Amino acid sequence: MRILRSRLGRIIREIRRKIEGQSALENAFTLLLGRATQIRAQRQRQRGCSCILSTPRTRSASAMEGRQCT
Questions:
Q1: Residue 33 pLDDT > 80, yes or no?
Q2: Taking phi first (over 0 means left), then psi (-120 to 50 degrees means alpha), and beta for anything else, what does residue 51 get?
Q3: Do residues 29 and 19 touch, judged by C-beta distance below 8 A?
Q4: 26: which residues sit within 8 A by CB, 6+ positions away?
Q5: Short-list 40, 44, 66, CA closest to 53
Q6: How many helical (H) and strand (E) elements, i.e. helices and strands, does the chain have?
Q7: What highest taxon heads this organism's lineage (predicted)?
Q8: pLDDT higher than threshold 70 for residue 66
Q9: CB neighbour list of residue 36: distance below 8 Å, 6 or more residues apart
Q10: Where residue 62 falls among pLDDT bands split at 50, 70, 90?
Q11: pTM over 0.70
Q12: If you placed Cys at 49, which of 12, 21, 61, 69 could pair as Cys (CB 3.0 to 4.6 Å)?
């Protein structure tokens, strides 16, 4: 997992560096880079949890309380 996390970090940094100053590309990659950053920030015990990718951002925290990640 450590190797994958470091590779993902390198890819995120490289994409951000290459699109810097190009507002159209920055807007296009905002959501994807945000999700990649969230996935990279997950700890090893959370890897079975796909809540980041499957849950819309409009849900409230109270709606997510009953949901368990497997």
A1: yes
A2: alpha
A3: yes
A4: 19, 20
A5: 40
A6: 4, 0
A7: Bacteria
A8: no
A9: 8, 11, 12
A10: low
A11: no
A12: 69
Between the alpha carbon of residue 44 and those of residues 2, 4, 5, 7, 47, the distances in Å are 9, 11, 10, 15, 5
The residue with tokens 């990279």 is 40
Residue with tokens 């499957």, as numbered in its chain = 54
Mean pLDDT of all residues belonging to the chain: 78
C-alpha pair distances (Å), 4 with each of 8, 9, 40, 44, 61? 6, 9, 9, 11, 29
Question: For residue 31, which amino acid is it?
Answer: L
In this structure, which amino acid lies at residue 14? E
Residue reference for tokens 């309380």: 65
